[in-house]
Amino acid sequence: MGRNGDVVAIIGRANVGKSTLFNRIVQKRLAIVDDIPGVTRDRIYARVEWSGKSFYLVDTGGFPNDDEPLLDAVGRQIARAIEEANVIILVIDGREGILPQDEKIAEILRKSNRKVIVAVNKVDEPMHEHLIYDAYKLGFEDVVGVSAEHNRNISNLLDIVVAHVDEETVEEDEDDAIKIAIVGRPNVGKSSIFNALIGEERAIVSDIPGTTRDSIDTVITYEGKKYLLIDTAGLRKKSRLKDDIEFYSLLRAERSMDRADVVLLVIDVTEAVTEQDKRIAGMVFEKGKGLVVALNKWDLLPEGQPKLGDSIIKFAKEQLYFTNDAPVITTSALSKRNILKIFDVCNEIYTLRQTRIPTSILNRMVRDIVSFQRLPSDGKGRFLNIYYVTQVETAPPSFVFFVNDQNLVDKPFERKIINELVKVGNFRGVPVRVFWKNRR
Ligand code: GDP
Ligand code: GDP
């Protein structure tokens, strides 16, 4: 599976069929790799696999619209797409032909150095094929007639798209490094923490190209260990386009997380833990990554109130109850509080995520559960029986339980088992996967 993907943005004026095309590509026929609950509802991007390559597809039409004139909003979306995307699908309504607004968008796109593919939509039947010729005058080489609604020619379009999507590249030299993604909402202090990390004189810093165009990774050697900070380009140089769309930062975070071993979730302590923070933490766990939380801007808390600090940490842990007690570090990029501790804790979580629990210990755990816990039943006297358990994977640790009937397992019991595993393996901040298999 891919480690990172290019971004492919669907753009075009209203009603040409962008959302229909997005849904067509995402929902049908293709494997969506990352389908995270909480995030799916208002999802406007998704990871798509096609012909052995993967990319993130973005529906720019799904952006929340402010009160500004429509053209400004479209212009902003285009500017953003140009900045963030590697490939752009420009959607045109074949029935309406090329309108002045299409030409305007095309003009901006021609000046970008992005690959642009024109999808002439609503070409519902072969007899409508002539509709596409008009679109060549926009000046782009690749023009495809499609019908998003009737599922025509979508695979052709995708073939062209992936021809321009970068191969997944695996960092050969840095495989021994602990890969860390620094994520969080805008303005929580990610860049400041990054700068504090590279500014420490005890750290040796070097840049290497990231896996996609325009991305830079930073390798830091600290106390003899290598840490690779993923896609730090955005942390060094802020986007030129300041706006309130958190969307791209979430997408960027997701791309970084996909490559990470450990994710450092930075939270602004003055804003406590927000829904968005919880969402990101949930994504980290869905992706099977280790999680470390930094409560940043600790210096802004009033001095001389240790109880306040304690209650804030307690609150954060409560909010992030599903993260197996992920470590929470209190940091200040300003005063450099606990900055180097970030390395130590990430290293610890990295190691835990790789841990293999000896089978003898696992089976002792099972014996205890079977002896001391009430096992779920079908209500008619038939109880779950666990024969044995084995760890099939690390990073994240994954376990298979062999049982008499997997249908007897309910959610609360599975949660209980996960909690036991977390205790036994000390998997704090590490997601644990559990599978059930029948054995006669
Ligand atoms: P968006 O504003 O660009 O996201 O456009 P939508 O995806 O919301 O589609 C606008 C309208 O065009 C909707 O009524 C769709 O049902 C319709 N539509 C989208 N794709 C096609 C298509 O391939 N053929 C036809 N005939 N209608 C389509
Ligand atoms: P990012 O958007 O998450 O990368 O956040 P930045 O690193 O750009 O920081 C946003 C703002 O918060 C800037 O004004 C920083 O100076 C400030 N900031 C970052 N970390 C701290 C901190 O630990 N303490 C205080 N007081 N301010 C901070």
From TrEMBL:
The keyword Repeat applies. GTP 1 binds at residues 12-19, 59-63, 121-124. One of its GO terms (biological process) is ribosome biogenesis. GTP 2 binds at residues 184-191, 231-235, 296-299. GO terms for molecular function: GTP binding; ribosome binding. Transmembrane segments: none annotated. It comes from the Bacteria. Residues 6-169, 178-354 form the EngA-type G domain. Pfam families: KH_dom-like (PF14714), MMR_HSR1 (PF01926). Keywords: GTP-binding, Nucleotide-binding, Repeat, Ribosome biogenesis. The keyword Repeat applies. SMART domains: AAA. CDD domains: EngA1 (cd01894), EngA2 (cd01895). GTPase that plays an essential role in the late steps of ribosome biogenesis. Belongs to the TRAFAC class TrmE-Era-EngA-EngB-Septin-like GTPase superfamily. EngA (Der) GTPase family. Associates with the 50S ribosomal subunit. HAMAP family: GTPase_Der (MF_00195). This is GTPase Der. It comes from Acetomicrobium mobile (strain ATCC BAA-54 / DSM 13181 / JCM 12221 / NGA) (Anaerobaculum mobile). The lineage of its organism: Bacteria, Thermotogati, Synergistota, Synergistia, Synergistales.
